[in-house]
Every structure is written in C-alpha cells, then in structure tokens.
Amino acid sequence: MKTNSKYLVAILLAGVLLVPQFSYGLTGTNTTTPIDPNKKERFQPKDSSSKQVDPRALKTASENRSGDQNFCTQFSQKVSKLSQEVNKRRSEAIAKVDQIKTEIRKKDSERKVDLTEKRSENEVKFNENVSKLDSKVSTLSQKQAVASFKSAMIAARAARKAAVDKAQADFRAGMEAVANERKNGVASTTDAFRAASNAAIEKAKADCAAGVDANTIKDTLNTSLRAAKTELENDRKSFDNSAKVQALVKARNAAIRKAHDDFKAILKAEIAKLKVAIGAGSGNATSTPPITPTPTSTPTTTPSSTQP
C-alpha cells in the first residue's frame, strides 16, 4: 500500500506542475508549448541572415498578380462593348427625338386636313344662307345691304383664317425649334459623356500596361464613370422643355381665341347694320336676317402629347 500511495502522490504532483503549462498556452500569456514525448522533432541550426517565407504569402501574391492580369485582360475585351453601348444609347436618344418630331408633324397634318374640311363646310353654309337672305329681300337697298354684308363677312372670314393660320404656323415653328434644341442637347451631352468615358478607359488601359494594382485601377475607373454619368444626368435636366411647350400652347390658343373673338365682333356689328338696312327698306326694323356664320372652334393641344 505504501508503494501505491507514493505512486499516486507522484502522479498528482506531476499533474499540478503541468497545469500552469497548459493554462499559459490557452491564455496566451506564455508561448511555451507542451512537448509531446511521442513526437520526433527536427532541430535545425538558426540562420540569422535568412528569413523564412510563408508559402501562403507566396500563393497570395501569385493570386494577386494573376488577378491583375485577368482584370486587365477582361477589361480590354469589354472596352469595345462599353463603347458600343454608349453609341447605341446616343443613337436611341436622338432617334426618339426624331420620332417625336415626326409625330408632331403627323398630328399637325391631320389638324390641317380637319380644319380645311370644316372651313369648306362653313363656306358652303355661308353662301347658302346669304343666297336665301338675298332671295327674301326685294328692294334695291335691301339687296345692296345683303351684298355689303356678304363682302364684310368674306373679309372677316379671310382675316380670321389668316390669324388662325399664323398662330398655327408660329406654334409649329416653335415646336420644331424646341425639338431641335432638345436633339442638339442630347447629342452634345452624350458626346461629352462618351468623351469622359473614353478618357477613363484610356487611363485604365495605361494603368494596366504600367502594372498598377488592379483594385486601384477599378476604383479609379468606377469613380470616373460615375462622375461622367452624374454629369450626363445633370445636363439632361438642364434642357427640360416642358415650360417652353406650355408657353407655345398658351400663345397659340390665345391668338386663335382672339381671331375668333374679332370675327364674332365683326359679325355682330354687320348683322346689326343688316337689320337696320332691311328693316328700313321693308318698314320692319326688327326682322333678323337668317344668317349666323358659326366660327370654327378654337383647337386645343395637350402639351404632353406634343412635347419633343
């Protein structure tokens, strides 16, 4: 029993002495590592003049160099696609403006046809009413009054037609100018964007050739392209033409409304004169001539449907 007790005591003492070794290793306060008696260690003399290189560091450096080469290779291959995309968007933007101009001209042509038809119908009705009125009067003075009324209204209709046509022509010219301004703005802003993009691409190519770090190249390229895109968006906002279109619509409608109002005023005055002339000739000053030429209604335009 004494032998066994001494053996147990020795084991306990050995355990107590080993505990600090393990605790130091776990807490990091001591870098001493327990020696495995079953592990064979290879001891080599230290060479203070040489440093050992971690193979993982060599692998990482190799991967970085490979990544640089891959980025530059892929970038060179994608440059042409980027340029094609920029050119494509520029062409699409200009084509859209041209399409809007075509739609404006088409609608204007349709309005001209419709206005011509209404004018022809009103001309026929006017002549029919004047003929009916002339057939109902008998005296010379009455017939002269009808002829005077007809001449005055023909002149009034011609003046109204000229004013309406001028208003429409001014509106069309203004819309063409707005559309051309937008087209030129699209072309200039996209050209500036393309130039900035090409400059960023050329710098990236030069950096690749000079062996600049791939991350630096990518960051510089992305920053330049973002700046070019922001500039493009700001430039596009600068030629918003909705206010100009609204002003053109208001001016056109106001001119046409004035032409109709002037025509109505002349019509009212001539009818009053005709009443007096016919009434004086027949002894009835209250008779009303059966003629009321109806002016063409004022056309209206929705700005959003004609905005270039």
Question: How many separate domains make up the residues?
Answer: 1
Major sheet details: none
* Helix/strand class: mainly alpha
Beta strands, count: 0
Q: Low-confidence stretches at least 5 residues in length (pLDDT < 50)?
A: 1-35, 39-46, 53-67, 283-308
State the end-to-end distance.
110 Å
- Percent helix among the residues? over 70%
Specify the overall morphology.
Answer: rod-shaped
Strand content is under 5%
Q: Rg to the nearest angstrom?
A: 47 Å
| Helix and strand element order | HHHHHH
Instruction: Tell me the number of helical segments per DSSP (H or I, 4 or more residues long).
Output: 6
What's the mean pLDDT score? Answer: 75
Helix and strand layout, with pairings?
Layout: H1 2-27, H2 55-136, H3 140-210, H4 214-238, H5 242-282, H6 303-306
Helix pairs in contact: 2-3, 3-4, 3-5
What does this structure look like?
The chain has one domain. It has helices spanning 2-27, 55-136, 140-210, 214-238, 242-282, 303-306. The longest helix is centred in the first third of the chain and has 82 residues, at 55-136. Helix 3 runs antiparallel to helix 5 (242-282). The protein has 308 residues and is an all-alpha fold. The chain has 6 helices and no strands.
